[in-house]
Amino acid sequence: MYGGQAIELDEVREQAVRAELAHLMESASFRTSKRSREFLQYIVEHTIHGPTGSLKERSIGVDLFQLPQDFDPGQHTIVRVTANEVRKRLAQHYLAENGNPHPVRIELSAGSYRAGFRWEAPAAEAAEINVPVDRLPVPEPAVATQRIPPPANRFIHTVVPWVVAFIAIAGGLSWAKWAGVKPTSAESSAGVVPGIVSATLPADDDLRIIVGAVNPFMDRSGRTWGPDRFFSGGSVLLHPSERIVRTLDPDLYRHLRTGDFRYAIPLKPGTYELHLHFAETGLADFISAESSGEGQRVFHVSANGKRLLDFFDVVADANGVNTSDERVFRNIAPAEDGFLHLAFSPVRGTAMLSAIEVLPVTAGKLRPIRIRAGWTASWKNSAGQEWLADSFFLGGNALVRRTNPAQDSNSAAPDIALYASERWGNFSYALPLPEGKYRVTLKFCEGHYGKRNSGAGGVGSRLFDVYCNGVALMRNFDIFKEAGGEGRPIDRSFSGIRPNAQGKILLSFVPVVGMACVNAIEVTEDTR
Known about the structure:
It comes from Solibacter usitatus (strain Ellin6076). Belongs to the malectin family. One of its GO terms (cellular component) is membrane. It is a single-pass type I membrane protein. This is Malectin domain-containing protein. The protein is of the alpha+beta class. The chain folds into three domains: about 10-130, no CATH class; about 200-360, Jelly Rolls; about 370-525, Jelly Rolls (Sandwich). It contains nine helices and 26 strands. The protein has helices at about 10-25, 35-50, 55-65, 80-95, 125-130, 155-170, 175-180, 315-320, 480-485; strands at about 105-110, 115-120, 205-210, 215-220, 225, 230-240, 255-265, 270-280, 300-305, 305-310, 325-330, 340-350, 350-355, 355-360, 370, 380, 385, 395-400, 420-430, 440-445, 465-470, 470-475, 490-495, 505-515, 515-520, 520-525. The strands form seven sheets. Strands 6, 7, 9, 10, 12 and 13 form a six-stranded antiparallel beta sheet that branches. Strands 18, 19, 21, 22, 24 and 25 form a six-stranded antiparallel beta sheet that branches. It has a four-stranded antiparallel beta sheet with strand order 3-14-8-11. The chain is globular.
């Protein structure tokens, strides 16, 4: 490790470095770690103005971390550990913003405690265009009738020819509001530029978007999710290796858009249900044993100016970090201009989002939830009803049997294929639904105990409780006894069920004797 001389920067370059440092301090990569922020600020300041030799492990340990002058680096490794953490955060930040114009990038090379500055634009432009995303004007949807005013600055001169070419193809755009806004993430390379919005729907009226992604994705249930589009503002954060629970599709939650941002989604006239997906990732390493992470990020969500979520906290809503969280809203319609305008406004920290679904429905109706427990793909029954791959679960084990335990005498039972798989153990399902009354149907079939199965056990071998939002639906439920033997499908339905304050029907399966299990779950609107 070495110190070296301070780097001499002219006023314009120093201003650009400080603007980039401020942007990093506000980014999702650094906002959760006070120590990393202070370390980066310290080394940047001392690289620019510090005395010769001030950036060595011992001097940093004493000056920044208040270690004694004679501390043993072999015992106190905080300087090296923090430097490595800052390197990772810098790499993560710039990877997530790949394609974004950065007049200067701040680096920390391995083996050094001095900051490096890599210039990617003329210094005179650096301070001009490096404005924090949340201070940029919010672009409006494309309007073909608007005129293009004369360019106002050097940055506009560099993009006007490109914009004019695009107008010739698309028929015009809202330049007055968009001028000066730079792309906020790598997604722009996929034909998505903030403020430039296609006025047509995709071929499939089911619209699904993975926020921050540049490529389409097919989930376990065979549904296609498109890359990020229709956005303005914010920046993208990538967590490629986080383990995320309550989903078989963690890749939906690898990218986040954070900051103060908007979506303007073109829709055909009609009624839709809106699904917003979240997962608070990257906090697990920064939460103490006494804290679960609530309160670190709070924001509002609105649709067409109407508030959908007030002071929303993903960790509190999902009951944990690295947990997929879905909120569903009914009776969504485009505004008069034909767009669904979604706004994500920070209250504390930054707003965030992982994925969006906009699904057409009959006015006043909602799509049912049907889950095939333990199964890793979607399935359609003879009536054409689709059952999703196992979803929304936490805990337990998936089991797919080689032989369907349902007896031949029951082969005429509807949806008999559902009983070839199950989830068993001590587990729960958090089913996302908007306010309303619902009918919940649980499907069971004893596939382990009895002469036709393992040859052992019978009545009393499996007893468990089922709770809905903390209220008992069934106690000491015995599939074998209630169905009259093994391999006999049996349903239990419950009406008048309402979601909890987090917009979930939380079903908990708690073992009493042996293990709890379920083969399938269906939730439909209760029209009675």
